[in-house]
Specification:
The protein is α+β, with helices and mostly antiparallel strands. The protein has a single domain (40-496), classed as Cytochrome p450, CATH 1.10.630. The chain has 23 helices and 12 strands. The chain has helices at residues 4-7, 11-34, 49-56, 60-71, 87-94, 124-138, 146-164, 172-189, 195-198, 205-221, 223-230, 232-238, 247-264, 274-280, 285-315, 318-333, 344-347, 351-363, 397-401, 404-407, 417-421, 424-435, 448-465, and strands at 75-78, 81-84, 101-102, 170-171, 373-374, 380-382, 385-387, 392-395, 466-470, 479-481, 485-487, 491-496. The strands form 4 sheets. It has a 5-stranded mixed β-sheet. A 3-stranded antiparallel β-sheet has the order 4-12-9. β1 (75-78) and β2 (81-84) form a beta hairpin. α7 (146-164) packs antiparallel against α8, α7 runs parallel beside α23 (448-465) and α8 (172-189) packs antiparallel against α15 (285-315). The N and C termini lie far apart (86 Å). The structure holds protoporphyrin IX containing FE.
Length: 497
């Protein structure tokens, strides 16, 4: 039999273990005490491992939602992290002049650890400067061809559906992504990636994106993971690089080359477009590249999700679909929709279309990350709640958009009529709430105008040109959310009208 001293670890190791346990125990207690006035899952208050665990299980949004339902708003989901579903608080935090700033979440939005862009910088002055330079490009004020470029890509989409999917199912989750990526590349740097003409997932972009998002979620929510990923070794092993021949890196490389060509060839630049606008405003080549990358990352999955979900929800609801189809046909017959692609001014006047889209935005807010903001020095009080300095507050868009007290007992269902039945005041509250999924105030999505134009016009043309049905209604749609909502196998059939 071995002597007891040979099986026991050496005394030094025991002491180290005890000290380590004491350290973690005391840190957990101190962490918990920091915000003990806020309720939330017990382990969430003691360590960020709770949030990490939810990410690993792809249930961050559901866990936030459960916490809000159980503990009320705001709920505590980290040692110094709260979650809210209150659109008024979001407006308060983001308002011009508010002292709240971006939290550590935004550091994780840097694609390249050394380089910030408009969506990642936490420096208020740099952010305001970039926004003021870019806004005229995004809202179309200072570019000639935003809508006409979009029309080219809508035409490609209609052709693709008409010719490549005649009488056979198409996965609208996939095809909608081809479309939005080609739209973004056209408006961002003047030429489409070519997803629709190839009718394939170029560079395995979709596959790579789906595997990258779980990592992205860990990076944005955990500064330790951010630090690890920023190390040269991890950058070499895991980060997308513009020299890659597959995945997101390949798309970024495409953008980089397009920007470089424009800088080398300033004189031959075509009409006043977005890149041209950024260059005129003095953005450097590197800044233009970074901003092009943001457009691809921020603008593709977001718009794709709303487009495919709204169409799918409509197809699944024959009453709503019939009303929208009738509205579009009526406008086409009375000459108020231009042909072959309806202009934005005319489609904005269609009331049922507007209701159908706002309801789609409400059902599937696509960018489900925390977008956490930091409480200013000295703390802040809002609606009688005191938020201590240094606390971060994130937003759960899904809980906000399905609040029964705002949208009614049937808030979990897709019902565009709710937007038409309500009085003007209530509709304003509906819209203000759902619009918060674009961010608000000084952090509002720069691409909101482009996304809304793209969604309105594309939905009209898809319904004006085709009749849609679900290919296999029993199959279901696998959905995962890692800061961004992804769907697979949304198989539908389009029949030309
Ligand atoms: C339905 C579609 C979209 C949704 C729901 C959406 C949502 C958002 C959200 C939530 C933010 C962050 C707000 C915050 O920090 O509090 C954001 C920022 C941003 N989005 Fe979008 N977005 C959409 C489409 C687009 C498109 C199409 C583009 C590009 C053409 C785009 C470009 C940007 C940019 C550049 C920012 C950073 C703005 C800033 O930091 O000041 N987005 N978006």
């Amino acid at each position: 039999m071995p002597a007891i001293t040979t099986i026991l670890p050496p005394a030094g190791a025991v002491v180290a273990l005890l000290l380590l346990s004491a350290y973690f125990g005391i840190s957990a207690i101190l962490s918990y005490r920091k915000l003990k006035q806020f309720q939330g899952p017990v382990f969430a208050g003691t360590s960020k491992l709770w949030l990490f665990w939810q990410s690993v299980n792809a249930r961050v949004v559901q866990a936030e939602w459960d916490a809000l339902a159980k503990y009320g708003t705001p709920a505590r989901i980290g040692p110094s992290l709260l979650i809210t579903d209150d659109a008024d608080l979001v407006r308060h935090m983001n308002a011009p002049g508010s002292k709240w700033t971006r939290g550590a979440w935004y550091d994780g939005m840097r694609l390249d650890p050394g380089h910030d862009h408009v969506f990642s910088t936490r420096d208020e002055a740099i952010h305001a400067d970039l926004r003021s330079k870019e806004i005229g490009g995004y809202n179309g004020r200072d570019v000639d061809n935003l809508e006409s470029d979009l029309d080219l890509r809508i035409t490609d989409l209609l052709e693709l559906v008409r010719h490549s999917y005649k009488d056979k199912p198409l996965d609208i989750a996939e095809v909608a992504r081809y479309f939005t990526l080609d739209v973004l590349s056209t408006i961002a740097f003047g030429r489409p990636f070519g997803f629709m003409s190839a009718n394939s997932d170029l560079w395995d972009y979709g596959k790579a994106n789906a595997s990258f998002l779980p990592m992205l979620e860990l990076i944005i929510n955990h500064p330790t993971v951010q630090w690890l990923i920023a190390t040269p070794l991890m950058q070499k092993l895991a980060a997308p690089r513009h020299t890659d021949t597959t995945g997101i890196g390949a798309a970024l490389g495409f953008a980089r080359r397009a920007v470089a060509e424009r800088f080398q060839n300033v004189k031959s630049a075509r009409k006043k477009d977005m890149l041209n606008h950024f260059m005129n405003k003095g953005l450097t080549q590197e800044q233009c590249e970074n901003e092009a990358h943001v457009q691809i990352i921020a603008g593709s999955d977001s718009t794709t999700t709303i487009l495919r979900c709204t169409l799918f929800l409509l197809i699944s609801n024959p009453v709503a679909y019939g009303k929208l189809r009738a509205e579009i046909d009526q406008a086409a017959n009375d000459g108020s929709l231009s042909y072959p692609i309806a202009n934005y001014a005319s489609v904005q006047k269609l009331p049922y279309l507007s209701a159908a889209l706002w309801e789609g935005l409400r059902m599937f807010p696509p960018l489900a990350g925390l977008k956490a903001k930091l409480v200013p020095p000295g703390g802040d009080t809002f609606k009688d709640v005191f938020y201590p300095e240094g606390t971060e507050v994130g937003l759960c868009d899904d809980a906000m958009c399905r609040k029964r007290e705002i949208f009614g007992d049937d808030a979990q269902f897709y019902r565009p009529e709710r937007w038409i039945e309500v009085g003007q005041d209530e509709r304003v509250v509906f819209q203000r709430t759902v619009d918060s999924i674009f961010g608000t105030g000084r952090f509002q999505c720069l691409g909101r105008h482009i996304a809304m134009m793209e969604l309105h016009k594309t939905l009209v043309e898809l319904i004006r040109n085709f009749d849609w049905s679900i290919a296999d209604p029993f199959a279901g749609v696998p959905t995962t959310i890692h800061a961004v909502t992804l769907h697979r196998n949304m198989n539908v059939i389009a029949r030309a009208r």
